[in-house]
Amino acid sequence: MGKKFTDYCPPGSIFLERVREKIGKLYGSFGYEPVEPSVFLDYEDLYFKDKNNSFKVVDYDGRVLTLRTEYTLSAAEMAARINDEGRDFIKFYYFGKVFRYITENAGDYREFHQIGIENIMGKDDPFADIEVIALAVETLLELGFKNFTVDMGEVNFFKGITFDYGFDEESSEILCKLIDKKDYIGIENFLGDKNIKNSVIDDFRKITRLYGKGEVLKKAKGYAKNETSKKSLERLSFIYEKLKSMGYEKYISLDLGMLKHMDYYTGIIFTGYIEGLGYPVLSGGRYDSLFLKYNRNLYAVGFAAGLERILEKAGSFGEGFKVYIGYDEEGFKKAFNFTRYINDKIYFQSFPEKPEDSIKRAKKLGAEKVYYFRGDEIFFL
């Protein structure tokens, strides 16, 4: 069906199933519970940014529906319902398909699998950010990667700076996109059209280069001349130092020139990159304002990872067949019963065969052991 839509057979389908098992165990150990929302949403419920990027269908009653473009909106709606029952500490994880009509970047698919978590609380606390970012790192480690980075930024740092210069929300969003793309010419032209001084334009160019480890925070303080920017840097510094103390310094970097939808994200943002892959495999951040849609006073941070992108660089989990079971006609019953009680990954032959054929087929499958049942007898070949 082409790259944008993908069918899975072994070994790809086996990889996906093993990811589900491994990641479910990781997230479950931190109190996250699985959710499986409907694949359909009301079109009017989508964020503005997703409306042109969705597959739309019309229900029999004329209502416009869409296939989900991500999980967060559905998770937030479920969390709001749970919150009605008096619970304000909600942790979800998910594994499933999402669908996007437009593919804008290299590595994009129209139909792909996402894994992710949503941490939704009645309290705004940086420790929730730390937990979620640490689990983003652990996700990539659990999937066998060693060389990767999770870049962290803070949208409020940039918001404070734009407010200082009197930009309205629309202008701030445009400038945000230009800085995120490191479009230096675009930044200069946009600010020049607004008669912004060259020294200020130069400051915005420099912000795009605020990337690295802890030293970035010291440089950023020179641009933080208002309370919003100062507080965002203090919080980011606290998060960075905690993650560093937990042994994650190797995997995390700071990128204050990384900016995402400022009308959606409300604090820390982060993106994960695997060595040798030129586009992100993981993305997340804080999105407290989403719950205003449901009139709830809740705070949330989460991330999602695209498995098709990860699959491009992932090695196998070493999950080939361990045991091959062959038999003659009289040995079928005993072979079947024997197979039910073995924990290794087994290939059970579906018809009687000769011992030499069992050996040949086991070799093709890479099975390490071959058991052959002849009547009531068992042979290890």
From TrEMBL:
One of its GO terms (cellular component) is cytoplasm. Pathway: Amino-acid biosynthesis; L-histidine biosynthesis; L-histidine from 5-phospho-alpha-D-ribose 1-diphosphate: step 1/9. One of its GO terms (biological process) is L-histidine biosynthetic process. It comes from the Bacteria. Residues 5-310 form the Class II Histidinyl-tRNA synthetase (HisRS)-like catalytic core domain. Belongs to the class-II aminoacyl-tRNA synthetase family. HisZ subfamily. PANTHER family: HISTIDINE--TRNA LIGASE, HISTIDYL-TRNA SYNTHETASE. This function is generally fulfilled by the C-terminal part of HisG, which is missing in some bacteria such as this one. Required for the first step of histidine biosynthesis. May allow the feedback regulation of ATP phosphoribosyltransferase activity by histidine. Heteromultimer composed of HisG and HisZ subunits. This is ATP phosphoribosyltransferase regulatory subunit. It comes from Thermovenabulum gondwanense. The gene is hisZ.
